[in-house]
Amino acid sequence: MMAIKHILLVIFFTCVAYVHCDELRFLVVGDWGGMPWYPYTTPYETAVSSGMGKVAQELGTQFTVALGDNFYLDGVKNVDDERFKETFEDVFTSESLMTPWFFCAGNHDHHGNVSAQIAYSSKSERWNFPDFYYTKSWKIPGSDMELQLVLLDTVLLCGNSGHDDTLNQPEGPESIEVAEAQWNWLESTLRSSTAHYLIVGGHFPVWSIAEHGPTQCLVDRLRPLLEEYHVTAYISGHDHNLQHLKEQNSSVEYFVIGAGDIVFRSTRNKDKVPKGSSLFFWAEYLRFGGFAVIRASVENMTVEFVDSFQSNLYKRSISPRSPIESLK
To answer: What is d(CA 120, CA 165) in angstroms, rounded to the nearest whole number?
Structure first.
């Protein structure tokens, strides 16, 4: 009996310490992948890691989502590549970050061996990368409500974009057959979703005002699917800053979360997004990068941008999707 009381007290005080027990809480970081030479990381990545660890400890986050460009500049060679240790395991060392991480691939990862990153899932307890694209769902604590995450491989969908200094747009998938299989899977997955919060993520952005700008392939083919199936938000990286965009006559929210390794201030594509859609842009060199915190409850889902010093930069609150029966 005393043992049961002790367990209940631990649970109670844990909930008090983490403020809310009725939320799903997780971190999102993109473009975090260090450098291919000693010390295999950057001051931005180490600062972001420190900030993520402190926020994760404070909030008791359940997992982390990583949006590609996991290893600069050319991915990894094989499943035993030392970069897994040098740029990930030895950098994100906070105890609070020893929770599951869920990955997708970016353009730099595709310069190397993405299959090796997928295979590394069997070598690391927290590295979860089951396939090039996949979906995962969680229950909102204390409810029957659900958050669903759909992670894509935007390089397989659209083609690679070359090295960053070219600022080239992807020019089409290497394999039409592979791309179409993913498009078909995506539409089927979105069509069948009954989640109260439905988040789609990938490396390339749909909309962005920054250095790479909108990804035309995704504007043409992904955006209509996000609209048709009432997706809550699309999260991406690729551009090295933090952004929130939303078209005026759309319910879909777009978040660029690409400030995990270095920050770029360019807004060279500000005229290539729908008028009035750019609601927030952040890229401060001296704040050493940033990430996002997503908290989902019965009432709402919030997306909050945080810099490496744990300063709150911006917060967006989003209501659950429409009643499920109206989506069918």
So the answer is: 29
